[in-house]
Amino acid sequence: QVQLVESGGGLVQPGDSLRLSCGASGRTFSTYAMGWFRQAPGKEREFVAQLTWSTGMTYYADSVKGRFTISKDNAKNTVYLQMNSLKPEDTAVYYCAAALGSRAFDYWGQGTQVTVSS
Length: 118
Known about the structure:
mainly beta
């Protein structure tokens, strides 16, 4: 089992930056990848970014490429999502997820709200 706790959400204006954090505990030694997903009101949950834990390779949704950066701190078992040049369409609940041996995102945090509005 892996437990995930997100933090860092809030209300910002268009063009602002925000950094989300996701702390992991439990069976973190078997982590294959960490990811960020988001769900806007009335829409399905969508992929945002992913980081392969052992190699550090990253993948991004086209909608955030060049604006968002996923990174990790091994010592703290924490993954971050740096979000720059935020747009109103980035408004959503952001979820952190972990994939272990199955390589499927089976573990999820509770989510943190990000609202981009003037």
